[in-house]
Design a protein that fits this description.
Chains A, B, C, D: It holds the Pfam family ADH_N. By secondary structure, the first copy, chain A, is an alpha/beta fold. The first copy, chain A, is built from eleven helices and 16 strands. Chain A folds into two domains: 213 residues, Quinone Oxidoreductase, Chain A, domain 1; 137 residues, NAD(P)-binding Rossmann-like Domain (Rossmann fold, 3-Layer(aba) Sandwich). In chain A, strand 15, helix 11 and strand 16 form a beta-alpha-beta unit.
C-alpha cells in the first residue's frame, strides 16, 4: 500500500478526507498505523479558520496505534508494538527542552525556544486523523501501551489528561486545598481529576451543562455549580466563608472564566490557566489587589514525551478514575466530516469521539 | 515625656507634623524610639489621596530605632536594644500566616486572610514618621541590629531590600539566567541587586534617568537601557538574539512596564511584578502566546518578620553591596514636609531620604 | 473542680494515673477539657525509658476536646468550642518558625532553633492523657472541629495523619509515581494514604502483619508485600522491572527498613524517613551509588499548627479515606495502664486506642 | 591523518600515551579536535585502579576544542566552531532524562535509568585526553564557546563549575543563608562560588591547605577555617552562635567531612554532598536528631548538556568570578604522564592543569 486516507484542512469551514501518499520514514522517525484517534477543541478552531494551518495539512494530534516502521536511529522498540505519542512531540535535546520547557521547543536553529513549538502534529506537520502518522523524534516520543489497556482507555493521554493534569500540577495544589475548576469539558474534567490526584480536599466544578457537572462528580468534584443558575463568584466566596480558594483552574479560554477565576482566589492563591484565548485579557485592579496580593497566574501547554505518557498510562492502569468514560461516541475515519459536525456543534452530549481508521 | 511629634495625614495633599500622646504599650507590643526612618513611594500615594488612610493617622513604615518599652509577653529583648522591624508586621500565627503568605495576614477573625493585611504601619495603625512607634506582635517583628551597622545601612531593610529581593526570589532565578528589571528606583535597584544575588549572569536594567542607570551598574546591572533613547523591547530581544529573558521584574506599576516585561519574556519565562498598579491591566494576546506559553506572572508584597530582617541585615553586613548608598539626603523629622516635597517631586537626584527625629 | 486525673511517667516501665491540680491559664494559653486522646508509639518509648522525660510529667500529645478557659490574649475562639491541637505546638513567631521549620522551634532565647523543639505535649510540658491539657501559644494551635466530625474521625489529625502525610509530601511525589512504604503501622498507613493523595499510581506497602497489609489496601496500596514471606528488595525491583521506585517512605525507624528503602530507589529517587531511630545508621556505599546517584534522604517531624489541623480535618471531612477506622479499641482514661499494656505489646490487632476521660 | 595520540588506562598505576585510530563518526556524533583538556580527581581514582575502567580506554572528560566533523543528524553547528561539552553527556531523550535526572541516563534499553549512566567520556567510551574525541548525542551536548573567552576560562565548565555549582543549587540556598563548604579543591572552590551566586551572606570555607583557603576568599568565602588548626565543628557552632548553618556542602568524599557537615547543620538544614565516597557512610544518631530534625541529605552528579554549558559560560563571561585562575599549570599532551604525577601527588600548589594536544 502506498496511499492512505487523511483528514486535511482545505479552507475555513472545510476539512475533507483525501488520499495521500504514505510518508517516507527518516532516521529519527517512526511510522505508526493509527488504530484510534480523536478530535480536539483546537481542531475545531482550525476548522473554523480561527487558528491558521497550511492548506492540505492533515489534522489531529492524539494518536493511538501500532508501529509500522522504525527509522534507523530509533532503538528500543519493535515493529508491531502498540504505542501512543503525546500531542506535543518535543525533541528534548534543544536548549529550550533542556531548560525545562520542552513544549516550547524551538529546535536547533537559533536559541531553541518557540512559543508552542513542541506542538507539531496537525499544526506544522501532518497529524493523526489518517491511516498513518509519522512520529518525529520517535525515540523521545513513542510510548508503549501496557498490556490490558484498550485504545479508548489511553486515548485521553496524548492531550486531554496531560493538559488537564498540568493545570492541577501548575496550580501547586497541596493536601487540604480548596480548588475551583472553571469549565468541565474534557480538559476541565481532567483538571478536576488532577486536583483530586494532588490532594485537594474540596473541589468546586463550574459549568453550564448539568450532564458535564454530573460527570465531574465522578472525576472528583465535591461541589458543582451551574453558572446559568448561580452567581459563581459569590457562591464560591460563600462556600469558602469569604476566604476564597487556594487555586483556580481556567479550562475554557474566555475573559469571563479568567476573571471569575481571579476573583475567587484567596490572597496568595494561584490561577492556573489552560484555555486558549482569542483576545487580549483584562486583569481587574481589585481582583489583582493592585499587584500586592502575592498571587500567581500560570499558563501551561500540554506536556509531551514518552515519560509523561508512561506516567499517564500508569494512572489509567491504576483504575484511580475511568478516563475511557470520556469517550461518548465512535466514528469511522471515513465518517470524520460528520464527526466534526457533531463535535463542533456539541450535540448529543458529546465529550470525546473515538475515530477509527 | 508624654507627647511626641508625628507626621500625620490630614487631607489629600496635606501631611503635617503634629503632637500626639505617646502610645500605651499592650502585652504584645513594643514601643520603639525612632532614630531614623524614611519616606516611601507608597507614602506619596497616601499624600496625594490616591491610597486612602484615616485622617490623623501617622504615616511611614520603615523603622530604625531603640527599644523604649516592652509589653509583658515580649521575651528575648532588652530595653535600649537597637532594632528594626519590617514594613509588614504579620502576627505569624493566623491561618494565612501559617499557610505561607504572612504578608496577607487577616488576623484571627474569620479565615485569617486579608489582601495586604500584614501591612499595618502607616496604613491601619500609626506609623514610623514620628518620635516613637508601637510595634505590634513585637516578638515576631523586632529584629536586633548587628553591631557595627549604621542606621543608614539598615534603613533599606524594612521595605526596599525586602521588596526588591522578593521580586528576584519570586522570579525563580537560576544560575546563568538573563534578567531584565524595569525601573531603577530604590526598589528596582534592589531587585537588580537581588537578581545578582540569585545568580543571574546578565542583568539588563531599564529606566529613563541616566543617574539611576549608573547606580544600577553598582548594584549588579550588566547592561543599562534608557527607554527615552531606545525601544526597550526590541533592544532586549536583539541583545538576547531573539530568545528573550528568563525573567523580567516589573518595579514601577504601569501598564507600559508590565506589558514590556511580558513582551521580552522567553516562552516559559516569569514576569515578577512588584509595582503598585492604579488601574486595570491588559495582557496582550500575542505576548501571552494565547495562554499557551508556559509563562508565569507572579506578584509579591514585601516580606516582613524578624527572620527576614535578620537575613537582610546579614546581607548588608556581608558587604555584598552598599545599600546605604541609596540614602541620598538627610532631613530632620521637623522638616518632613519639605522632605515630602523633595521626594514627591523627585528633585535633586533623590533616591531615599533619611528622616531623623 | 481543682484537681484532675493524669497519666504520668513515674519510672521506666511505670506510667500511672494520678491526681494533679488543674493548671493555671496564662495569657497565651487555653485550657482544654479532653474528650478523647490516644497513645502513640513514642509514648511507649517513654514508658520503657528509652526516651527520657521528667518524672511526674503527664504523657500524651494527641488532644481532642472542648475549650474550658481562654487566656487573655487568645482571640477568635469561644469557650465550649470543640477543638484539636497538633502534637507539635510551635509558637510560629520564633526565628526557626519564620524560617520554615516550625517543628524545630527553639523559642525566643538564642537563635530560635531546637531539634524537635516544637514537640512540647508530654515531652517538655504536661500532655494530653488527662482530664485537661493546657495548650501553649493557643492562638496558633487551637483548631476548631468542623460540625459533623466525631472525635474518632479527627483523632488521627494531631500526629498520625500529619506525620504520615508529611512523609508523602517530603517525598515530592508526582502524578504517576511508584512509591514504596515500609511498615504499615498507623503512621505508615497514613503515609500510604498520603502517597495516594499526592498522585502516586502504584503504591507498594510492606509489613510483616497480614491484617495491616489488608488495611493498607483500603488506604491506597496497590500491592502489598509481607517481608516474612518475600525478599522485599528483590521483589520491588522485579515489580518495577529493575527501575526502582520514585520514592520510598520509611515509617518504622530501623536500619533494616532504612536500608531496604535506599536499595529500592531509582537513581534520582527520594528516601523520605519518618521513623524514630535509636542507633546510628549505615548508608551502604553501593545503594548510595558512591554519592553520585542524585538521591535525596529527607526526614520530617510531624507538622503542627491550626492551619495544618484545619487542612487535615478537611481531608477527613471529604471522605477521601476513613481515618476513623484506625481506631480499633476504646478505653476509659481510668483504664489507661491496661491500654498501655495492650498497645505496647501490640495485642489483639491494635492500631490506635481511643482514650476517654 | 588517521591516527591520534590518546592517554589510555593500561593497568592500575599506569596511564600511557598511545596511538589510536581516529574514531568513525556516526549519524548522531561529532568529532571534536581537542585544544585543551584537563585531569580530574576521578581520573586519579582510575589511575590508581580504585574506579575500574576497560584496559585501553582513553581517559578524561573535560573537552575544549573545535568541531572537526559532524554526523548526518547533527544540525545547528558548523565545522570549525569552537565548542565544549559537559563531562556528562546525556541523550536527553530516555525515560530517565525526561524524568528530570539526565545524569542518571540509562539509555533506551529497559527503563532508562542507570546510576551515573550519563557519564560516558573516559568511563564507558573513549575520553578527552587525546587529540580528538567523539561526542555522542552531539546535538544535545555540543556547546559553542562565546567569542572572547579563552580555553582556560571555559575549561572549568564541563565538570568543575557544573559540579560545584550543583552542590550549591541542591542545597537550596536562600538569600541570607549561612553556608559551610568542606574542602576547597577545585570543586569545593566552585561550590563556594556557587553559594555566593545563590545569595549566601556568610560562607565558611574549610580545608587543610592555607593556599586553598586563600583562593577560596577570592571565590566568595567570608571566613576560612584550617581543620589542622581548629576543631571545625565547634568553631562553626561558635561562629553561628550555636544555631548551625543553613546548608553544608561536602566536596571531598570522606566519612569525616560528611559527618562534620551533618554536625554543623541547623535543624531543618541541608547537607549537599558532592564527594565520591569509597566506603559505607555512618550517620550518627545525635547529629541526625534520631530522624526528627527535618534535615535533608542530597547528592548530585555533575549536570551536563549544552544548555547547562551555555549558562556556565555566560557566568564566566559575566566576570562574576575568575574561574580561569584555577588553572595553575599547563602541560603538553605529550607530557601527560608527568602531569598525572604532579596532580595525583598534589605537588606545587596544583589545582587544575591545562593539557594541550
Amino acid at each position: 500500500m502506498t496511499t492512505m486516507k487523511a483528514a486535511v484542512f482545505k479552507a475555513p469551514g472545510r476539512i475533507e478526507l483525501v488520499d495521500k501518499p504514505l510518508p517516507q520514514v527518516g532516521p529519527n522517525d517512526a511510522l505508526v498505523r493509527i488504530t484510534t484517534t480523536t478530535i480536539c477543541g483546537t481542531d475545531v478552531h482550525i476548522l473554523k479558520g480561527e487558528y491558521p494551518v497550511a492548506t492540505g495539512l492533515t489534522i489531529g494530534h492524539e494518536p493511538v496505534g501500532v508501529i509500522e516502521q522504525l527509522g534507523s536511529n530509533v532503538q528500543g522498540y519493535v515493529e508491531g508494538q502498540r504505542v501512543i505519542a503525546g500531542a506535543i512531540c518535543p525533541s528534548f535535546t534543544s536548549y529550550g527542552c533542556q531548560d525545562g520547557v520542552p513544549s516550547q521547543d524551538g529546535g536547533h536553529v537559533g536559541h531553541g525556544y518557540k512559543p508552542m513549538g513542541g506542538w507539531r502534529f496537525g499544526n506544522t506537520i501532518d497529524g493523526t486523523q489518517a491511516d498513518y502518522v509519522l512520529v518525529p523524534d520517535a525515540i523521545a516520543n513513542l510510548a508503549p501501551v501496557p498490556d490490558g489497556l484498550t485504545d479508548e482507555q489511553v486515548l485521553m493521554c496524548p492531550d486531554i489528561m496531560s493538559t488537564g493534569f498540568a493545570g492541577a500540577e501548575a496550580a501547586n495544589i497541596r493536601i487540604g486545598d480548596i480548588v475551583a475548576v472553571f469549565a468541565q469539558g474534557p480538559i476541565g474534567l481532567c483538571a478536576t481529576a488532577g486536583a483530586k490526584l494532588r490532594g485537594a480536599s474540596l473541589i468546586i466544578a463550574v459549568d453550564g451543562v448539568d450532564e458535564r457537572l454530573r460527570i465531574s462528580r465522578n472525576m472528583g468534584a465535591d461541589v458543582t455549580l451551574n453558572f446559568r443558575e448561580v452567581d459563581v463568584v459569590s457562591e464560591i466566596l460563600r462556600i469558602t466563608g469569604g476566604r476564597g480558594v487556594d487555586a483556580a483552574v481556567e479550562a475554557l479560554g474566555l475573559q469571563s472564566t479568567f476573571e471569575s477565576a481571579l476573583r475567587v482566589l484567596k490572597p496568595g492563591g494561584t490561577l492556573s490557566s489552560l484555555g486558549v484565548y482569542s483576545s487580549d485579557l483584562t486583569i481587574p485592579l481589585g481582583a489583582f489587589h493592585a499587584g500586592l496580593g502575592d498571587n500567581k497566574i500560570v499558563t501551561s501547554l500540554c506536556p509531551g514525551g514518552k515519560e509523561r505518557m508512561r506516567r499517564l498510562m500508569n494512572v489509567v492502569a491504576s483504575g484511580r478514575d475511568d478516563f475511557g468514560a470520556l469517550v461518548t461516541h465512535t466514528y469511522k475515519l471515513d465518517d470524520i466530516v460528520a464527526a466534526y459536525d457533531l463535535f463542533a456543534n456539541q450535540r448529543d452530549g458529546v465529550l470525546k469521539i473515538a475515530i477509527k481508521p
